[in-house]
């Protein structure tokens, strides 16, 4: 950020460029995209079949010995919006166009993982497309043992399976839970069964209260 | 070779024979022990299933999810300023510290920076929540070992810090005080002097704990050499915070990562311990609390004047982009991966909470320990259930 002097910023940026260059050297054409946000962070997208190879590469060639987290992103815009629609009206038209973030991509779901180096204190965020068929990637447990719980969480929340994972039981959800809650097309039931009172006035305000409301400055919904 | 009299030798052999008989007897019958979900050592509702061979744990697995609230899903239907209300409840003992990384991530995407005074006050409140959080740990760990006095001291002295947090923010546990672009309010009158007095009390508290526990023979026997986590394993599992520093890794995000906060304006030290056992984790946290009081004192002395709020639009819309911001929270590294699509609310928030990684190592570290040590080790790893289950 702005606290960094510009020289320090360019130094870390060139260090990040070197990370990407080294990774490309090791993985070859499995690196399909990279993005450096000046002074802040670096993103690299790898091919799906190279997901575990990328883990090995960042660990042994880039010195990223610290496992931060592993998760997934569903890029489909939510068909339910924020659950603030009037239940008596027909649902509004919403875009179904899947637009990926940094480093692009071709699939609705993407893997997301972050690792860091305990010596240089630099981190790298890795992404990979996950195709619908087969909806699976290689497990990272042979690379980072700590990926175990993160993969179990991603499995129950998104439905992705991890090849070679020894124990893909639910971590949070009850056994036998149907659906994958963090998918965008999984409705947030609390918002579906009852209109959200913070936004929608469910009942018309009685006249005597309405006058009071008109005198007070309008409250912002966001505070 | 040790020299023994005949009589002693005979007694020794008899004792050994008795030991091995007991061991053989116990080896024949395995047993599964269920610890929790309502055990006082679990700080909430965590269940541990342990398979025992005699007194020894041969396999153990934590079972979580009793308190999962689905914050990652809930953030998707909230606007950016509303999210802080939710994430306050992740690590409920250090609530203000939970708000900071999320607000920093939103500010990073909006390219807004809080004014210097707000950065200082943020850092001060951040350290106060660390002190109140860790103070409870310092007493609570002793309670898990059977010592009752320290936990009363901890609750007594933590109250002073909570009063300070309440004085500044209005909330003891859930301040909800951090805003995109700064803070809700400036500090109240007289707060600075009071804080300095409390920091002195907290240093006394640390001294008390050190005299009561660190030198205590029973405490040392119960914690030294128990639950050793080597640095390489700790890093692989993503252990962070004091747990990692107790394994000898000299890494503190407050010092080693540029962030628009005021930690680099104070002179303080990052403590590490080479042992990686339960004792080391306790000791590192004790030293950290002292350092936090030093940070607060120094920042109060050099508090800059000015506004506590930058200019931000009335309706906050965060530009499209992705940001990862993490800070060194009381429990370890806490970070938010925020994806925005240019809307008033986030598109996706991945919450990386420290306790999740810190507890995931427990099935590794509990293998081969004795049953009473299970409690010591879990207590020394120090997790908050809300921080695991989110």
Protein model, in words:
The complex is a heterodimer of chains A (223) and B (390). The model of chain A has no long low-confidence stretch (mean pLDDT 81). With 223 residues, chain A is of the alpha/beta class. Chain A has helices spanning 6-27, 51-60, 147-158, 189-193, 207-215; strands at residues 31-37, 41-46, 66-74, 109-116, 123-130, 136-138, 161-163. By secondary structure, chain B is an alpha+beta fold. Chain B has a three-stranded antiparallel β-sheet with strand order 1-2-3. Chain B has a three-stranded antiparallel β-sheet with strand order 6-7-8. A two-stranded antiparallel sheet of chain B has the order 4-5. In chain B, α5 packs antiparallel against α6 (149-169), α5 (116-144) runs antiparallel to α15 and α7 (191-214) runs antiparallel to α12. Chain B is globular and about 80 Å long. Chains A and B meet through β3 and α3 of A and α2, α3, α9, β6 and β7 of B.
Spatial ordering of strands, largest sheet of chain B? 1-2-3
The share of residues in extended strands of chain B comes to 5-15%
Structure summary, number of beta strands of chain B: 8
Order of helices and strands of chain A: HEEHEEEEHEHH
Structural class of the helix and strand makeup of chain A?
alpha/beta
* Fraction of residues in H or I helices of chain B: 40-55%
Distance between the termini of chain A: 27 Å
How much of the polypeptide of chain A forms β-strand, as a percent range?
15-25%
Question: Major sheet of chain B: size, sense and barrel closure?
Answer: 3 strands, antiparallel
Helix percent band of chain A: 25-40%
Q: Calculate the terminal CA-CA distance of chain B, rounded to whole Å.
A: 56 Å
Globally, the shape of chain B reads globular
Largest interface: A-B, 50 and 54 residues
Low-confidence stretches of chain B: none
Could you give the order of the helices and strands of chain B?
HEEEHHHHHEEHHHHHHEEEHHHH
Class of secondary structure makeup of chain B: alpha+beta
> For the report, how would you describe the main beta sheet of chain A?
5 strands, mixed
Radius of gyration of chain B: 23 Å
- What quaternary form is this? heterodimer
- Strand ordering within the main sheet of chain A: 1-2-5-4-3
Global shape of chain A: globular
């Amino acid at each position: 950020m702005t606290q960094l002097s510009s020289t320090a910023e360019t130094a870390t940026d060139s260090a990040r460029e070197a990370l990407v260059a080294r990774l490309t050297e090791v993985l070859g054409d499995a690196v399909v995209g990279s993005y450096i946000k000046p002074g802040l962070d670096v993103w690299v997208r790898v091919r799906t079949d190279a997901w575990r190879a990328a883990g090995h590469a960042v660990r042994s060639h880039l010195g990223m010995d610290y496992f931060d987290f592993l998760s997934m992103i569903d890029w489909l815009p939510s068909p339910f919006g924020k659950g603030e629609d009037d239940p008596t009206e027909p649902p509004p038209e919403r875009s179904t166009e899947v637009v990926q973030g940094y480093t692009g991509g071709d699939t609705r779901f993407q893997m997301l993982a972050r690792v860091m180096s305990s010596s240089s204190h630099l981190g790298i965020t890795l992404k990979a497309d996950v195709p619908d068929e087969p909806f699976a990637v290689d497990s990272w447990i042979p690379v980072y043992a700590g990926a175990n719980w993160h993969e179990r969480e991603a499995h129950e929340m998104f439905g992705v399976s991890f090849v070679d994972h020894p124990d893909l039981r639910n971590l949070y959800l009850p056994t036998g839970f149907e659906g994958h809650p963090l998918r965008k097309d999984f409705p947030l039931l609390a918002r579906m069964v009852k209109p959200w009172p913070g936004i929608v006035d469910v009942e018309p305000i009685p006249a005597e209260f309405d006058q009071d409301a008109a005198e007070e400055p309008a409250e912002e919904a966001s505070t | 070779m040790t020299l023994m009299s005949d009589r002693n030798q005979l007694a020794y052999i008899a004792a050994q024979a008795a030991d091995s008989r007991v061991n053989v007897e116990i080896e024949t019958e395995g047993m599964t022990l269920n610890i929790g979900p309502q055990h006082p050592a679990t700080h909430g509702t965590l269940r541990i299933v342990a398979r025992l061979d005699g007194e020894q744990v041969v396999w153990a697995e934590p079972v979580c999810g009793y308190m999962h609230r689905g914050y990652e899903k809930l953030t998707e239907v909230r606007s950016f300023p509303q999210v802080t209300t939710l994430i306050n409840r992740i690590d409920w003992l250090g609530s203000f510290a939970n708000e900071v990384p999320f607000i920093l991530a939103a500010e990073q995407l909006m390219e807004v920076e809080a004014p210097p005074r707000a950065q200082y006050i943020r850092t001060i409140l951040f350290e106060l929540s660390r002190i109140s959080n860790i103070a409870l740990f310092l007493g609570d760990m002793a309670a898990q070992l059977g010592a009752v006095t320290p936990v009363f001291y901890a609750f007594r002295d933590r109250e002073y810090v909570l009063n300070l947090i309440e004085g500044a923010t209005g909330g003891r546990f859930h301040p909800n005080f951090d805003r995109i672009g700064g803070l809700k309010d400036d500090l109240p009158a007289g707060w600075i002097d009071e804080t300095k007095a409390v920091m002195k009390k907290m240093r006394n508290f640390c001294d008390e704990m050190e005299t009561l526990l660190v030198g205590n023979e029973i405490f040392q026997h119960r914690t030294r050499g128990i639950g050793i986590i080597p640095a390489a394993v700790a890093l692989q599992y993503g252990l962070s915070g004091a747990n990692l520093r107790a394994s000898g890794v000299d890494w503190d995000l407050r010092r080693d990562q540029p962030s628009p906060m005021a930690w680099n304006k104070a002179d303080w030290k990052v403590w590490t311990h080479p042992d990686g056992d339960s004792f080391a984790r306790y000791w590192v946290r004790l030293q950290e609390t002292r350092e936090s009081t030093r940070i607060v004192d120094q920042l109060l002395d050099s508090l800059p004047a000015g506004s506590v709020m930058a200019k931000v639009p009335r309706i906050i819309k965060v530009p499209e982009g992705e940001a990862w911001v993490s800070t060194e929270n009381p429990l370890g590294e806490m970070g938010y991966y925020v994806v925005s699509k240019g809307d008033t609310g986030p598109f996706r928030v991945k919450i990386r909470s420290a306790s999740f990684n810190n507890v995931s190592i427990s099935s590794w570290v509990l293998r081969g320990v004795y049953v009473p040590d299970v409690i010591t080790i879990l207590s020394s790893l120090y997790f908050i259930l809300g921080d695991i289950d989110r």
